[in-house]
Amino acid sequence: MTDSPTPIEGSRFETELPVRPDDIDMNQHVHNSRYFDYVLAARYDQMARCYRLSMDEFLKAGFGWVVRTANIEYKRPLLMGDTVLVATWVSVMHTDGVTVSFEIRKKANGKLCCDGKFRYTMVDIQTGRSAKIPQWIAEKYSI
């Protein structure tokens, strides 16, 4: 495991989510903070469904994830009634975390609404300090 910029092949997955009424802000479109929520909800779903390592199992193993940095570029608004497709993939496996790239698209027309990346650091939940990714977890993320 290195800080290689090579994307992890086969780690791109997609989750479908509805825009909910409480996602809408005073400008009648999805509030910017909700895009982060969509990515986090997609990752939670994909950990269990695609990587076969649910967040509950991850926590039982004594590990958690914290967001170290987050970057997002907004392209077009999401509105009430839209359904979104959130694609995420591990673009870099670091010694102590992962960089996850993402795209959010409107399901109806496939148009890109935003893209970006999150840098997650793995933490030992007993100490709250960063931890090296164990080989068995790296293998799950390297499908």
Summarize the structure.
The protein is an alpha+beta fold. The chain has helices at residues 32-49, 55-60, 135-141, and strands at residues 13-18, 63-74, 83-93, 97-106, 112-124. It has one domain (13-136): Roll (Thiol Ester Dehydrase, Chain A).
Strand content: 35-45%
Main sheet specs: 5 strands, antiparallel
Provide the gyration radius in Å.
16 Å
Spell out the helices and strands N to C. Answer: EHHEEEEH
Summed up, the domain count is 1
Uncertain regions spanning at least 5 consecutive residues: 1-6
Biggest sheet strand order reads 1-3-4-5-2
Q: What is the CATH C-level name?
A: Alpha Beta
* Tally of helical runs: 3
Polypeptide structure, described:
Strands 1-3-4-5-2 form a 5-stranded antiparallel sheet. The chain is of the alpha+beta class and about 140 residues long. The protein has a single domain, classed as Roll (Thiol Ester Dehydrase, Chain A), CATH 3.10.129. It is elongated. The longest helix has 18 residues. About 20% of the residues lie in helices and about 35% in strands.
